[in-house]
Design goal:
With about 325 residues, this protein is an alpha/beta fold. The chain contains 13 helices and 10 strands. Strands 2-1-5-6-10-9 form a 6-stranded mixed β-sheet. The chain starts with 13 loop residues before the first strand and ends in an 8-residue tail after the last helix.
Length: about 325
């Protein structure tokens, strides 16, 4: 079942409204339309309706040499189930606590109670100024995290993640992490299979955990030059059986110490963190697609026992395997776990 309980049965689409401001970064707007626009049901029906709105409809300047013509005003927010605020050029100027234009504040006041609200990059300053992040965990672009933390000490700022999701208010780091954020929302609404299909269509990784480091000082190693690549391929083909660090290191022709260091450089995670992530993803897919009992899924995904699967699954997603299966298969007459 989708987050709003309707999109999966075809009676309606989940409504996403993107609130843009003068000086917006066009790529961030494009991310939202491209990813949500590709999400379709098993019968090919669109699962989302995305609309762009602005406080003053008409020509909206961007941070590039072209403008956008946005015809819809903030009345669109009144019927939105998800509201996304991309960054704008003004966010990169020195900030003041609580500084938010009256038109943007008025726009956010129109968002229905219970709607999901998200920001991309420094759009988080808007959510913070509007009081939507108080007492929550959030992130923003790594260059702005110290300023953000100083201005809003009541917000738990995490400078080392790609995105956060705290009780229906979400934030993401730089521009590209907006992709991870949107895929996370699609995955939350409709499951791993739909999100993975969208990722394949966009030619991006289907799942980078929110806890991955958002900034690495050294250049990212091209995939064909990743020394730990063979070990990861081997692990993915053998997730069902116990895998030791020494075995993976041997696949990469490295010592355990060197393998652990290189793996963190390439993936942003330790080998064991990455392995657990892959096993949770495998379990998610089996829960969504099959009628297998939880103990069998635990064995097939490499957790060994149903107890271990439940512990890791709940730690990663905040729900039990049974509750997850009920969400994505129960409404279609599938097993409830």
């Amino acid at each position: 079942m989708a987050r709003d309980g309707r999109a999966r049965d075809g009676r309606d689409r989940h409504r996403v409204a993107v609130l843009v401001r003068p000086g917006l970064l066009p790529m961030e707007l494009g991310i939202v339309h491209r990813l949500f626009g590709q999400a379709v049901s098993s019968s090919g029906d669109p699962l989302y309706e995305v609309v762009t709105c602005t406080p003053r409809p008409g020509v909206v300047p961007t941070d590039t040499d072209f403008t956008l013509n946005v015809a819809v005003g903030t009345e669109a927010l009144e019927h939105a189930e998800t509201v996304i605020v991309p960054a704008a050029q003004e966010d990169y100027e020195p900030q003041e606590r609580g500084r938010i234009g009256a038109d943007v504040a008025g726009a956010l006041a129109r968002v229905p109670a219970g709607a999901r609200v998200a920001s991309i990059c420094t759009g988080s300053f808007v959510l913070a100024a509007a009081g939507l992040l108080a007492g929550r965990r959030a992130t923003t672009h790594w260059k702005s995290c110290e300023e953000f933390r100083t201005l809003y000490p009541e917000i738990e700022v995490d400078a080392d993640v790609l995105y956060t999701d705290d009780r229906g208010v979400l934030t993401s780091a730089g521009v590209a992490s907006g992709i991870d954020l949107c895929l996370h929302m699609i995955r939350t609404d409709h499951g791993a299979e739909v999100a993975n299909t969208v990722a394949r269509g966009t030619v991006v990784p289907p799942h980078r955990e929110g806890g991955q480091a958002q900034y690495v000082e050294r250049p990212v190693t091209p995939p064909e030059q990743c020394p730990t690549g063979p070990a990861r391929e081997f692990a993915l083909a053998h997730l069902h059986r116990p895998l030791k660090l020494a075995e993976l290191a041997d696949r990469a022709s490295m010592s355990v110490r060197t393998f652990n260091r290189r793996f963190r450089q390439e993936a942003g995670l330790t080998p064991m963190q990455w392995l657990i992530q892959q096993r949770v993803d495998r379990a998610r897919q089996l829960l969504e697609r099959t009628d297998l009992p939880v103990d069998r899924i635990a064995a097939d995904s490499g957790f060994g026992t149903g107890t271990a699967l439940r512990q890791h699954f709940h730690a990663a997603l905040g729900v039990s395997p049974r509750a997850y299966r009920r969400t994505f298969r129960g409404a279609d007459g599938g097993p409830t776990g």
